[in-house]
Amino acid sequence: MTLKLRDLSLKPDLFGTGHGLCAGCAESVSVRQILSALENPPVVALATGCLEVSTTRFPDTTWKVPLIHSAFENSATTIGGVDAAYKALVRKGRMEDRPLTFVVFAGDGATYDIGFQWLSGALERGHKFVYICLNNEGYMNTGIQRSSATLLGAWTTTTPSGDARPGKPEWHKDMTKIIAAHNIPYVAQAAAHNWKDLMTKVRKAEQADGPAFINVLTPCDRGWRFEPEKTMEVSQLMVEAGLWPLYEVVDGKYKMTGARQKKRPVMDALLSQKRFSHITKNADDATIAAIQAKVDEEWDALQALCEMSAAE
Amino acid sequence: MTTTQKQGQKPSSGITLPPAQAINGGEAVAYAMRQIDPEVVAAYPITPQTFIIEKFSEYVADGLVNTEYINVESEHAAMSACVGATAAGGRAQTATSGPGLALMYEMLWVASGMRLPIVMHLCSRSFSAPLNILCDHSDVMGMRESSWPMLIGSSPQEAYDQAVAMPTIAENKSVLLPVANVLDGFTVTHSVERVEVLPDEVVKEFAGEYEPDIWALQPGSTATFGTLDANDFYFEHKRQQVEAMKNSLEVVRTQLNAVGEITGRPMNLVEEYLMDDAEIALVVLGSSEGMVRAAIDQARADGIKVGMVRIRLFRPFPVADVRKALEGIGAVGVLDRAIAFGTPGNGLLQDLATSTRTMPDRPLLMDFVYGLGGRATPKQLFRQAVDEVLNMNETRVEPDEPAYLGLK
Fold first, then answer.
1. Residue B12: what pLDDT?
2. Element (H, E) at B353
3. A5-311 architecture in CATH?
4. What pLDDT digit, counting tens, does each position of B250-271 carry?
5. Which residue ranges make up each domain of chain A?
6. Do the beta carbons of residue A131 and residue A107 sit within 8 Å?
7. CA closest to A48 among chain B residues
8. Inter-chain touch B233–A58, beta carbons under 8 Å
């Protein structure tokens, strides 16, 4: 599948202007790209979060598509309700059948943590929708608290670095693999800087025969503590350091996507973000060694899965 | 059964009725849901609601409805799916009980705040802990301020008749609020009674279809549902909900009358029993009215001029109707089937006290807590309550504390 920039540039922008997202925020960039990548008109459900509060403040809206926000944890179920209503309205002859794509945008808090059950249920029931996790590795909307997507050692306002505890003590949840274990037709990880990889995945997700999930790394300059102009650079460093592998799982088959992955030590990426400054000030820090070891281990496991899939 | 239910009577509109069904309250509700054929039903099983969703699942399996039935993984998800479905443009219904209602509490406010006309059948049940699956009104009281019009029936027949009316109340353009059809857990949900049902086409014609002005699946729609309000608009949106709730009262009255005209079983916001010459009264919600009525009959036989007022429309509280029913009454016993911990009075007492406070000769009020966690309240206890109210009417002294009927 090839997406041509020339074609995409002719499409109307479905995400308008005038939103209140921070300068340097990756979310608006990714959302615009995702909406452009869709072939069908979308109906969007939005979880409570940065994107929602910054784009839907009454009486204004940034969205040029129908959009439903209901609460923090339940956007997968909300879109499930839309999917169900669609089917019944068509069946009753109250609405014409037409191609539509049901899309969810939710943060990592809404996806990994508070909304995990709702998402899992909606995937199991097989509603046809594309779930986009805009993953900035923390609860940025409420003021940079840790989530289960936050990296080991990272400073957040609920895992501050102190003498007794150097930032977040736990390794993050591997949500993408957990979603893949639902055996849905399309699962992927993408990152904000690699627009072509992201948009190709969105198009594949849209065409999947069932629920689809894309976990998109969207670096947060406020929460990760870097300069707003560095967003895409940081995103790229995360991928190059192997901290955010780009891959897809199509009908259970794992495959790496995109070039320049895991070409650098994790230190290169950690140094770009001041949320790690308490550990990066010492190159021999034990947490950094632990992160590197775990990244190596997970990378090898992922490669093994890809090789197994290729051999099948 | 109530005095207003004259079962077996020919409907005034002269339609031919299908055979009466021997079904329980849960099945009666499911029967109405099948006839209404909403686009979406989303529910999670919980005792004593299960009859409704099991029966409805059979209708789905047998292809008798067009409904998309979503077997959600929790009650919060049930209401979330209903929110999505209704915003999308479909008619959605759910059913739950006690702890399930507690789990979906956040979404009750989202549904009403987004002005989505969802219908919920609430099979009243206590709240945990201790775990108890039986009937009381903890859940009814738990949602009373969430901007849902709430009707409480007293029998499977009423659960059915109300279920027929519910969508037309919720979807009225001057209302646009979610509504609750309350049926008492077990005493109504599980009691098999003779239920007269309407022909499918009569219900379908009465209920019509959901015709929203703005819906997410509307071709060309760019509507945003569930916006963020800062301090610049939140207050105004809540004030509009006050008006919608007010509007719903007369809409409920009109729609109950309309159903009553078809069925020949009139339904009022407030049902009265032997109130014409009554000097004192008991006020009750829901299915306990049967036992209360028996106690009233006995007290009448003992020469006490007592009547009963059953409040069917619990929210919005029908203040004028209640005041009218209690005009000239000296003392009232209020039957509360839930405790409002730490408050100056339990739920129904608060409503009665507030409603009657400006009456020129307001009745004295006395609160009775009864039936918590499914505790059976025999006729004799309600009969004793009549004596206590009679005594208060003579001494003219209102007790500060409630009495607890049947507490060991």
1. 58
2. helix B347-356
3. 3-Layer(aba) Sandwich (3.40)
4. 999 999 999 999 999 999 999 9
5. 5-311
6. no
7. B228
8. yes
Amino acid at A134: L
Residues 243-272 of A with CB under 8 A from B: none
Residue whose C-alpha is closest to residue A168's, from A221, A235, A223, A217: A223
B173 exposed, middle or buried (CB, 10 Å; 0-12, 13-18, 19+)? exposed
Structure tokens at B67: 């409904």
Q: Rounding to the nearest 10 degrees, give the CA dihedral for residues A152, A157, A163, A165.
A: -30
Helix (H, G, I), strand (E, B) or coil at A232: helix
How much is the pLDDT for A259? 83
- Domain boundary (B228, B263, B298) is at B263
Q: Is residue B1 part of a domain?
A: no
Taking CA atoms, B357 is separated from A230, B6, B144, B299, B350, in Å, by 66, 35, 20, 28, 10
Chain A residues 90-109 within an 8 A CB cutoff of chain B: 91-92, 94-96, 98, 100
In a domain, B224, yes or no: yes
Q: DSSP E strands: which ranges in B101-148?
A: 119-124
Token representation of residue A144: 């940079």
Helices (H), A167-246: 175-180, 195-207, 221-224, 231-240
Measured between CB atoms, which of A77, A80, A89 is closest to B90?
A: A89
- At which residue do the structure tokens 């379908």 appear? B204
From residue A309, alpha-carbon distances to A247, A256, A302, A306 in Å are: 12, 11, 11, 5
pLDDT in tens, B191-217: 999 999 999 999 999 999 999 999 999
Average pLDDT over residues A188-201: 97
Specify the DSSP class assigned to residue A140: T
Query: What whole-number distance in Å separates Cα of residue B97 and Cα of residue B46?
Result: 6
* Domain containing residue B337: 270-404
Residues in B closer than 8 angstroms to A82, CB to CB, are 84-85, 87-88, 216-217
If asked whether residues B242 and B331 sit together in one domain, one would say no
Answer yes or no: are the C-beta atoms of A217 and A242 closer than 8 Å. Answer: no
Could B42 and A61 be called an inter-chain contact, meaning their C-beta atoms sit closer than 8 Å?
no
Q: Is residue B4 part of a domain?
A: no
pLDDT at B1: 36
CA distance B180 to B252: 12
CB atoms A81 and B84 under 8 Å: yes
Burial of B93 (0-12, 13-18, 19+ CB in 10 A): buried
pLDDT at B100 over 80: yes
Look up residue B341 and give its two tokens: 């911990």
Total number of domains constituting chain B:
2
- Interface probe with B: pick from A55, A74, A118, A119, most Cβ of B within 10 Å: A74
